[in-house]
Write a structure and sequence with these properties.
The chain contains six helices and seven strands. The protein has 246 residues and is α/β, with parallel strands linked by helices.
Length: 246
């Protein structure tokens, strides 16, 4: 597949969960396009290399104080923040709701939903003061429909979609757009958390009969963050290979 070309040479970008998986892939594209990229991750030592972020910072998206500290350090490195991609997340255990451990439920919701909320809460005042910003939240096809055996993840991602819509309306006159993406499964290290049966069943639900690639997802995020997508906010961009039809 040919590479999509973007120009973000004047942009500062924050990627949460950027030390691995789709976050690292998104960050790599922004870096290739000239952006100054700050990676926030609970385990920055897991960063795979292959490109050089402008800042690689420890941050726990479930801890507001940790995010405030990462943001302050980011401003020291980058001066400002134009784009935030909230991609930190976990899938959680696979199993029916009635067997789901309550502590596992809380952990998934805390990271996937509350983490997106706290990240937005941290950066929005800065963006409002500057009169510009792009916030992209990583939801999921599970945020648009029921995904059996992933009740906590599905609930959290539905919450991310709802939060994205609300925040978009709240900052619509501040020069900030807020959008989500709803990908089907992307083959990353998160596959290690899933059973082969679940992976095969999920692939069978995708009409294109394959999984989304990180490059495809990153290109969509970059377009949403670009000036070419300045008139769309509060929306959830589908990346489900035809699985969702709305």
């Amino acid at each position: 597949m040919s590479q999509v070309t973007f120009d973000f040479r004047d942009s500062s970008v924050v990627i949460t969960g950027g030390a691995g998986g789709i976050g690292a892939g998104i960050g790599a594209l922004f870096a290739r396009a000239g952006a100054r990229v700050a990676v926030w991750d609970r385990d920055p030592g897991a960063f795979p290399g292959g490109w050089e972020p402008a800042a690689l910072l420890a941050a726990d998206v479930t801890d507001e104080a940790s995010l405030r500290e990462a943001f302050a350090q980011t401003l020291d490195h980058l001066g400002s923040v134009d784009i935030v991609v909230s991609s930190a997340g976990i899938t959680g255990p696979v199993g029916p709701l009635w067997e789901y451990d309550a502590d596992d439920w809380r952990r998934v919701v805390d990271i996937d939903l509350t983490g997106a909320f706290l990240t937005a809460k941290t950066v929005v005042p800065h963006m409002r003061a500057r009169g510009y910003g792009r916030i992209i939240t990583v939801a999921s096809i599970a945020g648009k429909e029921a995904t059996t055996s992933l009740s906590a993840y599905t609930a959290a991602k539905h919450g991310v979609v709802g939060m994205t819509k609300v925040l978009a309306r709240e900052v619509v006159k501040d020069g900030i757009t807020v959008n989500a993406i709803a990908p089907a499964m992307v083959k990353t290290e998160l596959f290690s958390q899933l059973t082969e049966e679940f992976i095969d069943r999920t692939r069978a639900l995708i009409p294109l009969a394959r999984f989304l690639t990180v490059d495809e997802l990153a290109a969509t995020v970059a377009w949403i963050a670009s000036d070419q997508c300045g008139f769309t906010t509060g929306q959830t961009f589908d990346l489900s290979g035809g699985r969702a039809d709305y």
